[in-house]
From TrEMBL:
It comes from Kushneria sinocarnis. This is Ornithine cyclodeaminase. PANTHER family: KETIMINE REDUCTASE MU-CRYSTALLIN. Pfam families: OCD_Mu_crystall. GO terms for cellular component: cytoplasm.
Amino acid sequence: MELYNREQISAVVRLDQDALAAVEAGFRALGEGSVVQPPILSMPIEESNGEVDVKTAHIRGNDSFAIKVSPGFFDNPKLGLPSLNGLMIVFSAKTGLVEAVLFDEGYLTDVRTALAGAIAAKHLARPDSRRVTVLGAGVQAELQVAALQLVRDIDTLDVWARDRDRAQGYAERMRRDYGLNVNVHDDIAAACRDADIIVTTTPAKQPILDGAHLPNGVHVTAMGSDSPDKRELDSSVMERADAFVADTRAQSEHNGELKAYAGHAPPFEIFELGRVIASDQGPRTSPDQITVCDLTGTGVQDTAIAGLALSRLKG
């Protein structure tokens, strides 16, 4: 058994085409019915304002699988500690023995989450998409855009965040590090007006994006709602869309944007991202259509990125 730390892992796993292909292959296998993926195990630790999520999946035919343990303790910054942490344990799918522990401190989760957004855009956004709107200014606000550059020729970025100072800092970083034209906006409507792609990256508990904010032809990736108490999209966003895609329907209904329809069926068809990929034919049929993808984070992404990491670490 080998133990690898974040520094070692981040040196070999980056946002690149190989990592994109690995995560996309995991989604494809999920869509083809070749994945065993149990529900997320989630445990709140209310007295410490914390929670722990456990995700896993086995891709049939793979030599290994990963189990990810992801704690989030949201008062930690007051103690000078990161709020998110975690590790992935890689097991042999032949013997069940532990092959490695990837003490990535959440790094691989950040990478595979950003890659999922790029994969959604690859299959759903217009091929000529160049202008992205990001709601939020945290880690995923940066990584989602970086990953999008793997699949689209992004040159312009519009940003809105509740904290304008953070939005300004984010804008400066994106100009410097990615060479983008960046505009900071005081309201969401203005930020979204000319978007080809909108990405929501917030921990919002009430919807922030409305159907009225969507220009014709836009693709929306919502990745902030990953627990029962979070929501970023007003139901009008989903109902205005010509195609609504979830990473998995069950997780979207429990943790994601389909919570809006608890107790009754939504008035639109629901696609799953893996099946869209496996079909090799996206649901977008014209440039003017609106597409929405809800990403809650799946165990198959963790197994896929852990497998890539371990293969590179072993060299």
